[in-house]
Amino acid sequence: MGVTGVRRGIHVLVVAARGGALVRLSVERALRTLGWVPASSPADADLLAVCGTPADQERDAIEQIWRQLPGPRARVEVTSTEALGELLSQAASALEDHELQATLAQEADASAPMGMDHEDMDHAGMDHGDMDHGDMDHGDMDHGDMDHGDMSMTGPGGIALAGSSDDDRDGLEMDVGHVILGAGLPGWPAGLVLRATLHGDVVTGVEVLASPAPPSLSDPAVRAALLVDAAAGVLDLAGWSAAADSARRARDDLMDAAGATRIAAADVARLTRRVRRSVLLRWSLEGPGHRAPSSPAPGSVVRRRLIALLEAAATTLADPQGPAHVPLGDDLALLPELAEGQELASLRLLVASMALDAGVAADA
């Protein structure tokens, strides 16, 4: 990558803006090579890496994220993979530049009383910490520390999360609010901005404010890499971080030299079997209850799409000239119906399963 003598262990928060899906994959692969650490929140980050060119709806959110990074901090904007190593090296040097860091600290102090109103891009309810469900060891099926209550897409005990009542689940009157979801959320598609209407703590409406710009892909290995990357995002949000790491290693192999494709294809096939057989993953997404096939629960949709993403990646590698997948537009149109009555965590799972960065969506 052209980065030498750079200290390891730098924590990097990667934010994908419009058109930045492929750039993000290259950046994340570079981080793994350098031994740098993906950050889970602004508070955990030394470096903010913005991939792509932010749209108007994304700029405010990215600026707010930047203000939340503690010092020392650095920022890099990556619009292409050219000279990526040099950009990262410069960012690492900026972290050691005491004069620059003193200037950034003064700017942060000066702006502290201002810009703290996140109404236009409120990520408070989507704090990365709230989405961290720990490592799920699906291999041994150990249920000891496997609390998936917050990620259950059917609600506790299969109880519906929203209905016609104006009362919240605690019996109190529910507040109605709005939250904008976009750049900066882990696993969020580049360029997608949503406005979610919340009735209490559940989603009652979803509006698409900005749609992603799917990349034009000719290389089947890259198409497969983006599909596997989407699967990794779903697995992360579902709490199975070990499987997500396996998916990202296969993704990075697919983005590497052509010789790694055969190895990655075997890894994808193996991961597909693990996901398909995981009883705990099924339970965590679908819950103990079941709906009629004519009205599948959103958790069932997510699990089916997750498996289909991995199978589509394997098919793409086996038959590069095969047919295209279902276009994303239909799935975005269905998102409000699927998300209604669900919590924000479930909405994020639904979005992640659509593989919008790949420009395709698994058949639901």
Q: Brief description of this entry?
A:
With 364 residues, this protein is of the alpha/beta class. The protein is 42% helix and 11% strand. Helix 5 (220-237) packs antiparallel against helix 9 (298-318), helix 5 packs antiparallel against helix 11 and helix 6 (241-255) packs antiparallel against helix 7.
Keywords for this entry:
364 residues; alpha/beta; three-stranded antiparallel beta sheet; 42% helix; 11% strand; globular
Q: Averaging pLDDT over every residue, what do you get?
A: 78
Percentage of helical residues? 40-55%
Which assembly state applies to the chains in this document? single chain
Global Rg: 20 Å
| End-to-end gap | 39 Å
**Number of distinct beta strands:** 7
Strand content: 5-15%
User: Which parts are unreliable, with pLDDT below 50 for 5 consecutive residues or more?
Assistant: 115-137, 139-152, 154-166
Element-level helix/strand string: EHEEHEHHEEEHHHHHHH
- The shape is globular
Task: Write down the domain tally.
Answer: 2
Query: So how many helices?
Result: 11
Write out the strand line-up for the largest beta sheet, numbering strands in chain order: 2-1-3-4
Give the structural class: alpha/beta
